[in-house]
Amino acid sequence: MIEAWVIGTLARTLAYGTPLLLGTLGEIYSERSGVVNLGVEGMMIMGAISAFATAFTTGNPWLGILVAAIAGGLAALVHAFASITLRANQVVSGLALTMLGLGLSGLFGKGFEGKPLDSTISNVTVPLLKDIPYLGKILFIDQNPIVYISIVLTPILSYILFKTSIGITIRSVGENPAAADSAGINVWKVRYACVLLGGVLAGIAGGYLSIAYRPAWTQGMTGGMGWLVIALTIFASWKPGRGLVGAYIFGALIHLSYRLQPFVAPQLLKMMPYAFAILALVALAIGPGKQKSEEPNSLMEPYVRGEK
Amino acid sequence: MQEYLPFEITERPNPSGFVIITVSLLALLSAFLVASFVFWAYGTNPITAYTALFDGAFGGVYELSETIRRAIPLLLAGVGLVIAFKAQFWNIGAEGQLLLGTIAATWVALFSPVPEPLMVPAMFFFGFLAGSLWALVPAVLKSKLGINDVITTLMMNYIAINLVLFLVQGPWKGEHQWGFPYSDNFPAAAQLGTLGTTNVHWLTLVIGLVAAGLIYVLINRTTPGYEIRVLGSNPSAGRFAGMSYVKTSIMVMFISGGMAGMAGVGEIAGIHHMLRNPSELSLGYGYTAIIVAWLARKNPLAVILTAFFFGAIFAGGDALKVSLGLPFQITDVFNGLILFFLIGSEILMNYKFEWRRSP
Amino acid sequence: MNEKTTPLIKFDSVVKRFPGVVANDEVSFEVEEGTIHSLLGENGAGKTTLMKILYGLYRQNSGSIYLRGEKTEIDSPTKAIELGIGMVHQHFKLVSNHTVIENIALGLSDVSVTRPTQQIERKLIELAGKYGLEVDPRAKIWQLSAGEKQRVEILRALYRGAEILILDEPTSVLTPGETERLFGVLEEMVTGGKNVIFITHKLDEVMKISDRVTVLREGRVIDTLDTASTNKQELSKKMVGREVLFDLERNPCDRGENVLEVEGITGYNDKGVVAVDDLSFSVCEGEILGVAGVAGNGQRELAEVLTGLREATSGRVLINGKDLTNASPREIAEERVAHVPEDRIKQGIVGKLTLSDNAILKNYRKKPFSRGMFINYRKVKEWTKDLIEEFNVKVPGADTPANLLSGGNIQKLILGREVSSDPRLIIASHPTYGLDVGAAEQIRNLLLKQRDNGVAVLLISENLTEVTSLSDRIAVIFEGNLMGLVERNETTRDEIGMMMAGTRFEQLER
């Protein structure tokens, strides 16, 4: 009984953690290059509505995911233009993007509200692997392909960031853009690319929500997940691997906030992930270790050539 | 970027008032221009939409009063945010602080032993205090532990929303509300008077106007205000001069959160007279107040104007909803666009563009 | 040198304008193949700007650059690197949280994308051996000394196949010993067929290392000559435009009571490493105590511990006989301690605020500038105007934002503000760093005047000439330790140089 409950909870944790993981991976890249994008919530919801609208009208859910990625990417480009080219304040630009995303998705999503989606990305069960004791039930029965995609993506993105020359370039741009510039790196291009990747992944996260996880469109359906991503990025010390752990911890909290409703008032449960995010940052700040030094040195600083 | 553009960007460290106003107006105009594409894409004639928007905001005495009553919470919260932003404190949590104000007001009105004649001042007092205390959490976390203020203030918003939901669906659920998630109605002594038949709760408006003046003086003419300006623009110079970052952060957020809390009191005691769903209580005033403060270029007196402007957008957006059937999210679109163009235009203010001469 | 050969680099009427200044004004000269060519000039003479144009970081407004006789457009550092030009900046362009290898890998085009590090490490060790530029390839940059960082910068340029190496004020962070070693490396490189352009304002170095020298003043080329056919006096005259006094006028030291007593203080830097290690010394009335040392040997931390900005983990600080160990900056300032901070832009002023606001940074809570909570801006403005006049700050008015001032004027404002609070002790960190000769001279004279008035002055400076010409006694620190404390007229530059490199006074062969 308890065993089944735990296994069931863990399996659902993956489902809830996936949009957080995708968003966090993207935000890690964006911030590693020196750009904070607080517009994750906006990019996610744009992804969610465009995926739903596409899947609903064409009947092709994977096309929906593709369109979600494009929508998220386009939204990110707006932030990139404002914060990189126009050197606008990154905090305010990200907020503006979230407002705009919520507004546009609400506006254009009105006609889709309450419509059932027939063509979804359905869950799969992996043969053979499903028979592994415990792990099989958690990981390989009735999981969504996008869950697997995000899991595979994590080590790949981690390897690129820390072991390859591409990663060295990205991290250098975030740490010391003047040094990168002097070494012949186009700081602006690198930052645009990273912010774009962040948008694409956030868009996919949104698409996953509206056509795979819960195939329906409701306005504001991301419900603060984008903000959790921002907290997770810090919590993860800007490392994809830790991002995965963090995303699943928060996935579990979100899932539990539904699961525990028979015992505790649902509104109090819904506070849990947010309260936990604050507590996690406090723990990180007072705990031992040198998390702070992992923060990219030039985070939130627009680069202007010729300044010291 | 400079080297890739056909013109050279050079700094203009001290833009004149004329430049600031011209550029701001240009930004607003561009935002409206882009918004008309949104209208068009949605299938609404932009001209019809803008006419309806304008009429809804300024078309008559009632419309104007609706604009003003929307401006009231924006004024209070916006003035509070100005002081936070002056100190480089990213208070994105006015929404939550405002909701805490409504909770405090509800407690005073329905559950406290406060005698009736003192109810209104008590509501504003406890509303201010509740918003302040809510804002002190991020203030302490940032100034003592260096924890990101954007995240903590935002997370506190979601906690506040769920707190209000918990109260109206649980312990404070009204006995006379036919099962709706509302608290009971406030007694008459806890309801603010309005101007004539309008919804303008004048007391809150007066508080907002006075606060704008006081905060202007505080920032520009007093020693704590001097500390805010120094620490907000160069914290290490402030430290060097012996100022306390912790003390100033706490003071700033105390005022900022308190102003948002009072905005909440005004909304609940002036308009709703009961605690209810947060999305009905606030309409995102706390977030819009960020734009109000930004458009005012962090000048508390200018907030009076910008709050009025965004009040008009809210009132006009309401009219669009009624007359053209547009969803209320249209105001979010406006807000987002305006904010984008405002910050995007700052480069025009602080920098000059000169065409590159070919070498 | 054969007159007929094409010059390696030819600058032809290069002009670069910044808002309000002409940094390079019709600059024309030639650099010969196979030489060490010095660019000599004061701060602000336009040396660095010119080299940044050559390296593609800036673009000239007009004029051309010819490389081996061909007109060349260098529009980016990438292009410069392709053309075989490398630059070692004065402020190192290294990512301090990354390893040496990662820094070398940054921006390399012909490197394996997936496994760059192994490949680089091999070639790096080989190159380092060839030129005597040893450094641990896997160390993080922040763990390295300034000299090692510079080696990384040179290695990086060489790794990219630099034929022309530009060095911007390379000796400013080095000990005399390290400087010798660098000169050896440079000579080795020229023998190996490379070319070096050497930016400096130090005459000794020009005479010692370079074959030819171009003197810049206020953005213009004054002259280009062979070092063999000139001398220091001639060069300094060309550089400054007038005869320079190498010694300031000074009265004999009239030492009074101890104002500052430091007993065995220890403090850590931001990375958690001991930066000030059991230091003891005292400064008395009417005396200037100079602290000499190579950059990054605990000077900043020492000043911060003394002014309450950094915690002392052990030891005592006594000011006017009062124990002020780990007191707050305000408590220390109340004891009439003035502080001229190391980073005048970051710590000394608030750029966006007006001069008036900046003038009261230290005494805004005192009468008559404020009463109760309110600031009396009428009084503040009057006082600011007096300050501007008395200290000769060149500025349109008291309402001007401070970030519009030049470095020298900012420093005069800061010094004026600090001095006018009638201090007993002045802690001055690098007070003339980056200032032109005229402004620096004014600042130095101001400090001497304060000393004559009986103020105790602790002068922390990396400029050895400044320390030796101003101080009555000199304390030399190395890695946070006191190497020796000597009377100015009982020591020599060489001895101080030895101590700066880590030799204790007792071990000197005198």
Topology record:
The complex is a heterotrimer of chains A (308), B (359) and C (510).
Chain A lengths: L1 H31 L7 H19 L2 H25 L4 H20 L25 H6 L4 H19 L1 H11 L1 H6 L4 H27 L11 H11 L4 H20 L6 H21 L22
Helix pairs in contact in A: 1-6, 1-9, 1-10, 1-11, 2-3, 2-4, 2-9, 2-10, 3-4, 3-9, 6-7, 6-11, 7-9, 10-11, 10-12, 11-12
Chain B lengths: L6 E5 L5 H26 L3 H13 L2 H26 L7 H18 L7 H27 L3 H21 L32 H20 L1 H11 L1 H6 L4 H28 L5 H5 L2 H11 L4 H25 L5 H21 E5 L4
Antiparallel strand pairs in B: 1-2
Helix pairs in contact in B: 1-2, 1-14, 2-3, 2-13, 3-7, 3-10, 3-12, 3-13, 4-5, 4-6, 4-10, 4-12, 5-6, 5-10, 7-8, 7-10, 7-13, 8-10, 12-13, 12-14, 13-14
Chain C lengths: L8 E10 L2 E11 L4 E5 L6 H8 L7 E6 L2 E3 L4 H6 L2 E4 L11 H6 L10 H16 L14 H14 L4 E5 L7 H16 L3 E6 L2 H7 L2 E6 L2 E7 L5 H9 L17 E11 L5 E11 L3 E5 L6 H8 L5 E8 L2 E2 L5 H6 L2 E4 L3 H5 L6 H5 L10 E2 L2 E2 L1 H14 L16 H13 L5 E5 L7 H16 L3 E6 L2 H7 L2 E6 L2 E7 L5 H8 L10
Parallel strand pairs in C: 3-8, 3-9, 6-7, 7-8, 13-20, 13-21, 16-19, 19-20
Antiparallel strand pairs in C: 1-2, 1-4, 4-5, 9-10, 11-12, 11-14, 14-15, 17-18, 21-22
Helix pairs in contact in C: 14-15
